Sequence to fold (386 residues):
Amino acid sequence: MQINDKKSITVLGSTGSVGTQALDVARLLHLKVNAVSCADNIKLAEEQIREFKPDICAVVNEKAARELSIAVADTYTRVISGEESVCEAASYEKSDLVINAVTGIAGLKPSLAVINAGKTLALANKETVVTAGELVMKEAKEKNVTVIPVDSEHSAVFQCLSAGTRSDVENIILTASGGPFFGMTKERLSEITPEIALNHPTWKMGAKISIDSATLMNKGFEVMEAIHLFGISQDSVKVIIHRESIIHSLVEYKDKSMIALLSCPDMRLCVQYAVTYPERAPSLLNSLNLAEIGKLTFAEPDTENFALLSLAYRAAKDSGNSGAILNGANEVAVGMFLDNKISFTGITDVVTEAYESVQKKEISDYNDVFEADMASREAVRQIIGR
Fold:
């Protein structure tokens, strides 16, 4: 059975970094793209519509949606607008699988829409699980929806877990490149500008996730994701610095054997595996030449100068609304850094103070998640405004 006969897809966040790579995979595998969504990159959205001919394009920005609607009036694509339009695209009946590559907590509602529609969810939006992992995974189980991680680390874990049973797993080990500032002190980190921070040494990513990678907040979020995605305790999720970014994660089993996934660093492989699962297909990647690489190195993460990783472990332990608090504070703080309103080290300071100030409590529904998110954002604004 050919892949293109089996899967038709929706790509949410199609004009972003992961979204464009997802469409690279769709192009390679000749997949039918039924729906896409974007924020306001109208020029690229028009190009995607003309190439992939989706039935629906959801645009969050209503002004941009009007402009796009005029630009593609000669096509059969229906342009819809507003935040809820993304949920409409997410639940579009013709698609078998939805790739959620939306940035930030804005991706939570579309993920829920996918689950409620009974579609397979290929998840690149980590905030879905960071902020509401317990609720989301419970709902996916109740709806019998498969959630396939698209992050390189969690995709690797997902694949390594096929070597044994979940009860045999001792530890999940997430690798981290260490970001562009590996080995730097706080004094040097305080001088980092947004332009420097956006230059990741390995991965091609959007602005927000590039900064999160530089602060190691991204790795902290991935720890929280792993706990929920794979049903494992926080003490069994480890982080190791691996500068070469060749090993994407490892699973240690109770017999002390370790299963690792190695490949050239390219998000398209993660997207492709999610789309073709449980099958595999030829990809756009080059073969891995281990002799040419020569050696692989490892180091413990520096949680003194990159304290947000430790804060994420604490949030995982606090549970409840803690993930939403941490994520909301971080989203605002990163935005302020990119706008040159706070320093690079100020991100850690502001996020930590905001996290401390917002009340921690259990969550019973998604309103609790969004309330915690709003409270933490307001806490950051008050801290900055002092």
Notes: Residues 153 and 248 are 5 Å apart (CA to CA). The longest helix spans residues 366-385. The chain has a mean pLDDT of 95.
